[in-house]
Amino acid sequence: xxxxxxxxxxxxxxxxxxxxxxxxxxxxxxxxxxxxxxxxxxxxxxxxxxxxxxxxxxxxxxxxxxxxxxxxxxxxxxxxxxxxxxxxxxxxxxxxxxxxxxxxxxxxxxxxxxxxxxxxxxxxxxxxxxxxxxxxxxxxxxxxxxxxxxxxxxxxxxxxxxxxxxxxxxxxxxxxxxxxxxxxxxxxxxxxxxxxxxxxxxxxxxxxxxxxxxxxxxxxxxxxxxxxxxxxxxxxxxxxxxxxxxxxxxxxxxxxxxxxxxxxxxxxxxxxxxxxxxxxxxxxxxxxxxxxxxxxxxxxxxxxxxxxxxxxxxxxxxxxxxxxxxxxxxxxxxxxxxxxxxxxxxxxxxxxxxxxxxxxxxxxxxxxxxxxxxxxxxxxxxxxxxxxxxxxxxxxxxxxxxxxxxxxxxxxxxxxxxxxxxxxxxxxxxxxxxxxxxxxxxxxxxxxxxxxxxxxxxxxxxx
Length: 463
Hints:
single chain; 463 residues; TIM Barrel; 2 domains; seven-stranded antiparallel β-sheet; six-stranded parallel β-sheet; DUF4038 domain-containing protein
């Protein structure tokens, strides 16, 4: 195994072949709310957080991880070039630091050859890399290891350099920020991020997709940088500290309505198997977020108007293993976490969303006139702008009353999608009334369902 590891490492050190694109560029849809390929094909962002990917794994494990995520249906892997966990002072698994003398002006070629290889590995699997040039503690420490090494001048140069390196890689989606605010009561770091974004845009001929990963809670990119010309998409992080059922749907809805219109995404919902609100000290009685918590946040953020969602597992983002210290109480190693229920269920979700036209979605909770509920029972709905279908997510199985006159035909097909196993229960074709009552196949907490109502003239998977 040591010899194989050496061969793999040597292969990417000497491999100077240019990146061969097999994926199309991602752009914003014409209505400004969603994402698509350049040819107009819809793109539903299903991300996974692999923050420490370049820092804590060797190539054989990276290959295992990417294979697993490809098989489950993920299409965006969020990873950090200058990692959070002592990323400037602790080398990667091949003994290389990313910067020489912790200086952004002197990146270490050997370290970034690993990143090159992972970008190519992702391409061959149809995966995009949501690439953070740096974690936020290298711009503003606030908390974490740091050190702060960026200013406006070297941020521009580093952005220019790293984007120049990957300017021909269509599967790079740039993410600035790294879990830090752009502004607080005493400081404004926007000039530094603005300079880094300018470097990226200058290197790519203004063709880069750039977003920003903010800190958790009610903060979003929309508060401080929505109007920045370089920002392609708003992001929120509903996160892990707000307890169960943080109102991600309200945060998404807020940003969905902003002008100018930009897509919005919850890029860090509560991680599967993450302790509930472990700060400043975790009470084990509060337990962990499990797959049910993950599903509720995924569905309600997207049904509120998000262009996709990012799943995460608490052991996977940090690639926790016997050689690493625990960060916030993971309850298993990353290799044991790859096949947790929530990861499969995220893939089922993408398949559901891709089974219908994506770019004309209109979030509309007013469709639910009885049974919407609050907090953990809050249901979300959206409709198609052409009247072909609507969907309602019920986090708790129950009876609801729905306005259905937004569907074109007087004959509708009614189905129930099970988010737990990805299966559809068909209820058949019935006459449509303006308001109709529906009861989910099972009821109660833990029995979440998606109600699908289709125009019979539209040929979808549930028909």
